[in-house]
Known about the structure:
The chain is an all-alpha fold. It is built from 19 helices and 2 strands. The longest helix has 37 residues, at 335-371.
Amino acid sequence: MRLASVDGIPAAANPHQKCACSSTAPRSRNKLSVWTEKQTARGALAERVALSRNSASNMNPTGMSRALSGPPTLSRHAADTARLAAPLAIAQLSQMAMSVTDTVLLGSLGPDALAAGGLGANLFFVVVTLLQGVLTSVSVSVSHARGAQAEERVPHIYWTGFLLSLLLAVPAFVLLSFAAPIMMAFGEPALLAHNVGEYCAALRWGAPASLIGIGLMRSFLPAIGAARRLLWVSIGGVFVNGFLNYGLIHGAYGLPRIGFLGSAVATTITVWLTALMLMGLLHLRPRFRHFVTATRPNVPLMGELFGIGWPVAITYGVESMLLLATGLMVGLLGESQLAAHQIALNVASVAFMVPLAIGQAANVRVGFWSGAGQPLAARHAGFVALGLGVGFMCLSGLFLITAPRFIVGLYLHLDDPANAPTVALASSLLGVAAIFQIVDGMQTVGSGCLRGLKDTRVPMIAAAFGYWGIGFPTGYTLAFHFGLGARGLWWGLAAGLASVAVLMTLRFHRKSLRIVDSGGAA
């Protein structure tokens, strides 16, 4: 059994313990010296208890302070996972709220500004999200190090991840610099391509901040028990982004009026403020400072982080491409079906933020217990997270089935006869989305569990096969050969996600069981 630790220092290395119990004084001592030693020992013990309590309070958000007192119960796994996932889910929703704010304020300038800003923002989001997938390796690496009581490795991981974030920003900056030619290559009108290029030219300066503030920090902070910092900074970012968006678009609050480009500038400023705020909280707070002690980035470690992370980026990419291809095919069916598709996809995206956060929490907790040499606890942490994700999505799906018209009414006027076809189709798609959501939640949590075991390449292959080998052909066949239209495409999405969910869950079951049977050896 491992020795207990105080602020990450093994008990055997604790100077207080050494002075309290290593005395070799002669047996014949006067009463005063004996009394003094007893008082010293009591004082040292009290200090150790206080430090232990402080350490436990720091680790409680992820339940990691109990790593050395034996594996937790299933109910404790559930509580700790929920406690870690809650601030992550709110942070994800806050990021969505920023996107909604941009869309609403751009819409006030007319359809041309909305189209250019929307396309530019989507291109930026796709590029940085794919690259952020590489940085998910930081979370599992830190979790493994902390589970193994090797916290001296954490600063190396942090600074290597920081340098990796800056390096990944280079291709993002270059790609966004050529947004206009890319739009032209896809046959977009010249004016629209020009406006998208200008929008991305402003957004590209936010790429490094996005990769640091969202990519790196969203991986690093939960792994050290500081997920709540993400919550408050993300919520504050929504209000800052709204203030700057309105001010720079319309010239309010004493800010210059720069039209639709004001939204891009506001987003860039907001992501930089977010990144700097999170770094400030991390570097200036004494309880976290030892995790970021200045050290040189490690090239072999960077190779390890990239090796774990690049398959995750590819996985994000194949899923994003499937959704994009589905949207393009729905567009061929007419505006009404495209509008219904957008409504259903938006509702599903909001609900998806919760299992996405649970998957991130599973990544941390499975990684921690795996690093601690307790594979059974890692296995339990993963399956409890799967249960939480599926359970939430079942409740969400039940709501979609029982109140589809209410949900659609949040987007369209139900009493307008012109909206009747869209309302009917959107309500029908929400029924498919109820099943879609359950398997979507299952696959994203399963993927997080496997990342906790540093298993990312086989899941990448499973995702590519499920999305494009099953999901896309099924959707295309049902939509265009069986005449199901948008519903057929959504059933294809559900089939693809279901296959990926089954493959991810089976992979985690077999791999975690094999590690348990082998006594902890991967």
